[in-house]
Amino acid sequence: MKTEPLVIERVLNAPVEQVWQAITDPKKIREWYFAMEDFKPEPGFEFRFTGGKDEKTFLHICRVTEVIPNRKLRHTWSYQGYPGLSHVTMELFAEGNKTRFRLTHEGLETFPQDTGDFARENFHAGWTQIIGTTLREYVEGKSAEAHK
Predict the structure, then answer these.
(1) CA pair distance 65, 86, nearest whole angstrom
(2) Cα–Cα distance, 67 to 24 (Å, whole number)
(3) Alpha-carbon distance 118 to 127, whole Å?
(4) Is residue 59 domain-resident?
(5) What is the pLDDT of residues 112-121, one digit of tens each?
(6) Residue 25 belongs to a domain
(7) Which residue has the higher pLDDT, 127 or 117?
(8) Total domains present in the chain
Protein backbone atom coordinates (compact mmCIF):
# COMPACT_ATOMS: atom_id res chain seq x y z
CA MET A 1 0.00 0.00 0.00
CA LYS A 2 1.60 3.23 -1.17
CA THR A 3 0.97 6.28 0.96
CA GLU A 4 1.20 9.94 0.11
CA PRO A 5 4.70 11.38 0.36
CA LEU A 6 5.55 13.52 3.36
CA VAL A 7 6.12 17.12 2.25
CA ILE A 8 7.56 19.88 4.44
CA GLU A 9 7.95 23.34 2.95
CA ARG A 10 9.42 26.48 4.52
CA VAL A 11 10.61 29.87 3.30
CA LEU A 12 14.11 30.58 4.57
CA ASN A 13 15.48 34.09 4.86
CA ALA A 14 18.67 33.29 2.92
CA PRO A 15 19.58 33.16 -0.77
CA VAL A 16 19.42 29.87 -2.70
CA GLU A 17 23.20 29.61 -3.09
CA GLN A 18 23.66 29.77 0.67
CA VAL A 19 21.01 27.13 1.35
CA TRP A 20 22.54 24.92 -1.36
CA GLN A 21 25.93 25.16 0.34
CA ALA A 22 24.33 24.25 3.68
CA ILE A 23 22.84 21.05 2.25
CA THR A 24 25.82 19.98 0.09
CA ASP A 25 29.05 21.09 1.81
CA PRO A 26 30.13 18.33 4.27
CA LYS A 27 31.61 20.81 6.77
CA LYS A 28 28.43 22.87 6.79
CA ILE A 29 26.18 19.79 6.93
CA ARG A 30 27.88 18.73 10.18
CA GLU A 31 27.07 22.11 11.73
CA TRP A 32 23.28 21.77 11.44
CA TYR A 33 22.32 18.23 10.38
CA PHE A 34 24.09 14.97 11.20
CA ALA A 35 27.76 14.10 11.60
CA MET A 36 28.75 12.51 8.30
CA GLU A 37 32.27 11.48 7.44
CA ASP A 38 31.87 12.85 3.94
CA PHE A 39 29.29 14.01 1.45
CA LYS A 40 29.50 14.80 -2.24
CA PRO A 41 26.57 16.10 -4.28
CA GLU A 42 27.27 13.56 -7.04
CA PRO A 43 24.92 10.84 -8.30
CA GLY A 44 26.06 7.48 -6.96
CA PHE A 45 27.81 8.89 -3.86
CA GLU A 46 26.87 6.85 -0.77
CA PHE A 47 26.81 8.45 2.65
CA ARG A 48 25.98 7.18 6.11
CA PHE A 49 25.10 8.72 9.42
CA THR A 50 23.67 7.66 12.75
CA GLY A 51 20.50 9.27 14.01
CA GLY A 52 17.63 8.66 16.36
CA LYS A 53 16.97 9.17 20.02
CA ASP A 54 19.58 8.63 22.73
CA GLU A 55 18.11 5.28 23.76
CA LYS A 56 17.82 3.96 20.18
CA THR A 57 19.85 4.98 17.16
CA PHE A 58 19.82 3.81 13.55
CA LEU A 59 22.50 3.71 10.89
CA HIS A 60 21.10 5.54 7.86
CA ILE A 61 22.41 4.45 4.47
CA CYS A 62 21.81 6.87 1.62
CA ARG A 63 22.86 7.22 -2.02
CA VAL A 64 22.65 10.42 -4.06
CA THR A 65 20.46 9.84 -7.13
CA GLU A 66 19.93 13.31 -8.64
CA VAL A 67 21.66 16.67 -8.45
CA ILE A 68 20.67 19.94 -10.10
CA PRO A 69 22.96 22.59 -8.54
CA ASN A 70 21.12 25.23 -6.52
CA ARG A 71 17.79 23.56 -7.33
CA LYS A 72 17.48 19.88 -6.39
CA LEU A 73 19.16 17.14 -4.37
CA ARG A 74 17.61 13.66 -4.24
CA HIS A 75 18.86 10.57 -2.43
CA THR A 76 17.75 7.19 -1.20
CA TRP A 77 17.21 6.62 2.53
CA SER A 78 17.34 3.23 4.22
CA TYR A 79 18.40 1.73 7.55
CA GLN A 80 21.02 -0.93 8.18
CA GLY A 81 19.36 -4.12 9.39
CA TYR A 82 15.80 -3.10 8.45
CA PRO A 83 13.77 -3.62 5.28
CA GLY A 84 12.53 -0.65 3.30
CA LEU A 85 13.80 1.96 0.90
CA SER A 86 12.62 5.55 0.68
CA HIS A 87 13.62 8.67 -1.26
CA VAL A 88 14.28 12.18 0.00
CA THR A 89 14.10 15.14 -2.39
CA MET A 90 15.22 18.62 -1.38
CA GLU A 91 14.14 21.36 -3.79
CA LEU A 92 15.13 25.03 -3.66
CA PHE A 93 13.14 27.87 -5.23
CA ALA A 94 14.52 31.41 -5.28
CA GLU A 95 12.12 34.06 -4.03
CA GLY A 96 14.24 37.20 -4.21
CA ASN A 97 16.84 36.94 -1.44
CA LYS A 98 14.82 34.17 0.20
CA THR A 99 14.55 30.47 -0.58
CA ARG A 100 11.46 28.31 -0.58
CA PHE A 101 12.73 24.90 0.58
CA ARG A 102 10.59 21.86 -0.14
CA LEU A 103 11.46 18.47 1.31
CA THR A 104 9.59 15.42 0.00
CA HIS A 105 10.11 12.03 1.66
CA GLU A 106 8.55 9.17 -0.33
CA GLY A 107 8.31 5.48 0.53
CA LEU A 108 7.87 5.70 4.30
CA GLU A 109 5.36 2.84 4.09
CA THR A 110 8.19 0.47 3.06
CA PHE A 111 9.71 0.59 6.56
CA PRO A 112 8.53 -1.75 9.34
CA GLN A 113 5.42 -0.35 10.99
CA ASP A 114 5.17 -2.81 13.88
CA THR A 115 7.47 -1.00 16.34
CA GLY A 116 6.46 2.62 15.82
CA ASP A 117 10.09 3.64 15.28
CA PHE A 118 9.35 4.35 11.61
CA ALA A 119 5.90 5.91 12.07
CA ARG A 120 5.03 8.74 9.69
CA GLU A 121 4.47 11.06 12.68
CA ASN A 122 8.10 10.56 13.73
CA PHE A 123 9.35 11.53 10.28
CA HIS A 124 7.02 14.53 10.23
CA ALA A 125 8.26 15.73 13.63
CA GLY A 126 11.89 15.12 12.72
CA TRP A 127 11.82 16.86 9.35
CA THR A 128 9.77 19.76 10.77
CA GLN A 129 12.44 20.29 13.42
CA ILE A 130 15.34 19.86 10.99
CA ILE A 131 13.99 22.11 8.22
CA GLY A 132 11.86 24.54 10.22
CA THR A 133 14.28 25.12 13.08
CA THR A 134 17.80 23.70 12.69
CA LEU A 135 18.40 24.52 9.00
CA ARG A 136 16.47 27.80 9.30
CA GLU A 137 18.57 28.99 12.25
CA TYR A 138 21.78 27.91 10.52
CA VAL A 139 21.23 29.63 7.17
CA GLU A 140 19.45 32.69 8.57
CA GLY A 141 22.21 33.15 11.13
CA LYS A 142 24.85 32.83 8.41
CA SER A 143 22.90 35.24 6.20
CA ALA A 144 22.77 37.81 9.00
CA GLU A 145 26.53 37.40 9.61
CA ALA A 146 27.25 37.98 5.91
CA HIS A 147 25.44 41.34 6.02
CA LYS A 148 27.22 42.76 9.10
Answers:
(1) 12
(2) 10
(3) 13
(4) yes
(5) 988 788 999 9
(6) yes
(7) 127
(8) 1
Which residue range is the domain that position 93 belongs to? 6-146
Q: Contact 68/58 with Cβ under 8 angstroms?
A: no
Instruction: Give the C-alpha separation, 64 to 83, whole Å.
Output: 19
Distance CA 59, CA 21 (A): 24
Beta strands in 28-137 (DSSP E): 46-53, 56-68, 72-79, 86-95, 98-106
CA distance 66 to 74: 5
**Cβ contacts of 105 within 8 Å, gap of 6 or more:** 5, 6, 7, 77, 86, 87, 88, 89, 123, 127
d(CA 110, CA 24): 26
Q: Amino acid identity, residue 24?
A: T
Count the Cβ atoms, other than its own, within 10 Å of residue 42.
9
Q: What is the pLDDT of residues 2-58, one digit of tens each?
A: 689 999 999 999 999 999 999 999 999 999 998 888 999 999 999 999 987 777 889
CATH number, position 122 = 3.30.530.20
CA-to-CA dists, residue 107 to 18, 29, 98, 104, 138, angstroms:
29, 24, 29, 10, 28
Q: Are 82 and 56 in contact (CB under 8 A)?
A: no
